[in-house]
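To: structure subgroup
Subject: Chain for Friday's discussion

All,

I'm putting the inputs and outputs inline so they're searchable in the archive.
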Amino acid sequence: MQYGLMGNRTNKIDAKGRISIPANMRPDLGTEFVASRGTGKCLALYPLDEWDKFMESIHTKVTHKKRKQLEFFYLANAEKMSLDGQGRLLLNEDLRKAVDLEGEEQAVVFGNGKRIEIWNCSQFAEELGGITVDEVEDILDEYDI
């Protein structure tokens, strides 16, 4: 199992709603990918194979009623996309509104293992600051890592 997407960068959102995806993340994302809502208030970009695995997990592991809820949430907000020639992603208005990016001039592009997440800068800082080094160490100790 590989977790090649990592790190974070704060990038500008231009007047047309485009944001640049860091060059080091583009190969793992692929030429076509799926953009959908993520957990928390972020936009998640899934390489096609990871999107298929994610949706298959929902389909096979989640009970019928909850599966319908998850499929509705993710699929209703999903769109197959690609980057333009400059490595930019056009964020559609509905997704920008849903993840609090409407009217924002910058966003955080975060490599979260097998997907990329795009966050409102202040919400990303809040999430990142929500866990202390002591808590991380406690969790690592608990699982003997």
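Points worth raising on Friday:
Helices lie at 26-29, 48-61, 64-76, 93-98, 121-129, 133-142.
Strands lie at 8-12, 18-20, 33-37, 42-47, 79-81, 88-90, 106-111, 116-119.

D.
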